[in-house]
Amino acid sequence: MERATVIVAIDGPSGTGKSSTSKAVAAQLGLSYLDTGAQYRAITWWMVNNGIDIEDPSAIAAVAGKPEIVSGTDPTGPTITVDGTDVAGPIRTQEVTSQVSAVSAVPEVRARITELQRSIASDAENGIVVEGRDIGTTVLPDADLKIFLTASPEARAARRSGELKGADVQSTREALLKRDAADSSRKTSPLAKADDAVEVDTSELTLQQVIECVVTLVEEKRAGK
Ligand SMILES: Nc1ncnc2c1ncn2[C@@H]1O[C@H](COP(=O)(O)OP(=O)(O)OP(=O)(O)O)[C@@H](O)[C@H]1O
Ligand SMILES: Nc1ccn([C@@H]2O[C@H](COP(=O)(O)O)[C@@H](O)[C@H]2O)c(=O)n1
């Protein structure tokens, strides 16, 4: 019998295609979509804007509960606001990207954002695709389907530098690997593949092939296969 709702967790390192894949799969299957990286970027943006010392975890922890972060979960137009301000653009700056791993490593930040993510997932009536780094391991350990996307550093750097219109591939590769190392080595819910996740190496696949692969896996789950 087909299930009414489905919770899909998609994790993996930077630039493996999590956002592009998750949005397309959610749109195709009529599910909600949550970009958890955008939430960590949003709280980082708030810290930077409010002059909080990013090198000082206790200073970050002390104010982690202050910003109100709201995520819109329509996969065809996801939104993110902080205290009512649209931050979809500002959270993608180099300044935020280079500081987000330090902020997201603070346990009080993770506790706050994890609670928000669980609440959004439980409110999604038709089900949801949630993408990030610790969704299958920590945020939604009972997800119906867990996917772990990977790709070679070369493929990821080439994709990202194409997106950043001519950014140097070598320095893009180094920045990706530095962020992955920080995200994988933090103590609290690091980037990791859940034991029961399906790993998909996207290095040699087109985005369309990855989307089709994940849609098939979701449909099989829904059909109870
Ligand atoms: N299989 C693929 N083949 C070619 N390009 C791809 C593929 N998957 C994603 N891309 C492209 O790679 C870039 C990065 O993809 P995306 O933002 O979805 O990755 P991500 O894993 O969400 O990254 P991050 O964790 O840094 O947010 C985008 O420009 C996207 O269009
Ligand atoms: N579940 C998650 C998701 C993200 N992070 C942190 O946010 C950074 C930005 O993520 P993007 O997907 O937008 O690149 C990421 O580098 C992590 O530091 C996280 O900790 N947990």
Q: Strand-and-helix sequence, N→C?
A: EHEHHEEEHHEHEHHEH
What structural class is derived from the secondary structure elements? alpha/beta
Low-confidence stretches: none
- Overall geometry: globular
Number of helices: 9
Number of domains: 1
Please give the share of residues in helix: 40-55%
Roughly how many Å is the radius of gyration? Answer: 17 Å
Distance between the termini: 10 Å
Organism: Streptomyces graminofaciens
Enzyme class: transferase
Catalytic activity: CMP + ATP = CDP + ADP; dCMP + ATP = dCDP + ADP
Protein name: Cytidylate kinase
Core attributes:
kinase activity, binds ligand L45E5XJ5, Rossmann fold, 225 residues, Cytidylate_kinase_dom, binds adenosine-5'-triphosphate, alpha/beta, 8 strands
Report on this model:
- The chain has helices spanning 18-29, 36-49, 57-63, 94-104, 107-123, 135-139, 153-163, 169-185, 207-222; strands spanning 7-11, 32-35, 69-72, 79-82, 85-86, 128-132, 145-150, 198-201.
- By secondary structure, it is an alpha/beta fold.
- The protein has one domain (7-222): P-loop containing nucleotide triphosphate hydrolases (Rossmann fold).
- A 5-stranded parallel beta sheet has the order 2-6-1-7-8, sandwiched between helices. A 3-stranded antiparallel beta sheet has the order 3-4-5, with helices on one face.
- A hairpin with a 2-residue loop joins strand 4 (79-82) and strand 5 (85-86).
- Helix 4 packs parallel to helix 8 (169-185).
- Bound molecules: adenosine-5'-triphosphate and the ligand Nc1ccn([C@@H]2O[C@H](COP(=O)(O)O)[C@@H](O)[C@H]2O)c(=O)n1.
- It is found in: Cytoplasm.
- Residues 8-219 form the Cytidylate kinase domain.
- Residues 175-186 have a biased composition (Basic and acidic residues).
- InterPro entries: Cytidylate_kin, Cytidylate_kinase_dom, P-loop_NTPase.
